[in-house]
Amino acid sequence: MNYYKAASKMAAYIILAIIITAIVVGVGVYYATRSSPQTITVTSPVPTTVQSPSQTTTTSPIQTTTTTGLPKEITFYTWWAGLEKFAIDKLISAFEQKYGIKVIKTAVPGGAGVNAKFAILALIMAGKPPAAFQVHASAEQISYFMSAPQHTNSFVDMTNIAKEIGLYSTPAANAAMLSGHLYALPVDIHRANLLYINIHVLKKYNLPIPKTLDQLIQDAKVLEQHGVPAFLQAGADQFTVAMLWTQIFLAVAGPTKYIEFMYGTLSPNDPSIQKATQIFLELVKTFPPNWMSLDWTSAVAALVKGEGAFVVDGDWVTGLIYNVYPKVVLSPVDNITSNTDIVVEPFPGTQGIYSLVIDCVMVPKGPQQQGGVLFAKFFASKQGQEIFNPYKGSIATYPDIPTSIYPTEAQKWEVKQYATAKAYVYALIHGGLFDDVWQKFLQSSILLAQTGNTQLWYNMIKWALQQEYKEWSESGMFMGSYEHPFAGYLPPWAKKS
Ligand code: GAL
Atom 5 (ligand 1): residue with closest C-alpha? Predict the structure, then answer.
């Protein structure tokens, strides 16, 4: 395969990664000194009823396994830090208990991996990779191959391990394959095209729960006229602002063009790009004045307090609400009750589409490999996923896991939504874009929201599409397998050799 004409780009990555790693230390100190879950207090005017999902998810007892020749400790790199730590901490302690191996969790803060990805890239390029790390399905994995000395050979091919644990034949594992290989084991299924709504804010202004994009725009405009922020998108960690554009784009363009965006096969002149941008700029006007200082968790805090009506984000928000705001009643749109505080629904105009975000664990080859594989295998197993997913807000990748493991109605609803979806796409902002494209996309979405300069934005989109095409086609890879290409879409470079 003709992967790696990308050497000069990688040199740029190295410099970037070094800078980012330096920043990460500073960011880490900043986050470490921020409020912890225990210190968050929300004086919501709304929730009066205590939500009753049992905080006690029942999972099978962990049996201790004796292992020989394995390390005493391994390192795992992740961005599930701070208010997102609950699920990973449960999983790690179950693993430690079962195998007697200590997991040093290096949690680099910053939702969606805005800092962690570059810290991991830097370690890989420096030849000092961790035993295992968090990665998304899709192009993001190829960005790691491009930065590693032996490309795909620098990582453990997990295909056979997935077969061993009964994961291989699941649709999520198929989606996470690159040309029929699993280079990382999937541990959950998240959904990106969601709208979280504070129902009390809509009720106060007599507004309907929006079912179409037009209704959503209309609701936002009325709120704006009342001086109430509509969209609590977060500028500080950038990714939910970029997600807003991509969800509008999905609603306007439909699933096939969305997938073509990911592969760079879409024309930059496609009218849906302009249409989505115009709508995005309309909605940006309804952000709160402090949007640039919000991160995704503080945006959810503001939503819970009723400081705005909407948050466009993925279902890690469900996990955050469950773990941090247990009194808040979160309901799926088809099951709203008299005590509902927050409603979750598909982003209007994308009903029936499941925009997948699949978190996976990747294991670099090297001295820590054996421990890394053991950790990834446990994490991705049914037992591991039954521990992790209930607290994460996601659903497990095994379709036969009963919905009774999920503590929230929202997750049970998503199991059904996932099983009955008419179309699947892979989220651009959570793995679908190569790291260099992703970073520029995020920064440019902030600039677009701040300045309204569409020319810069269209130039960036044109470059992003070219770059996506180039990097995918040079890798020769595609999502899924020849037998089952992801979403039935086989890009032009996917030829069987
Ligand atoms: C996504 C990731 C989720 C969650 C979210 C917020 O990229 O897939 O598991 O961590 O970021 O940080």
Answer: 112
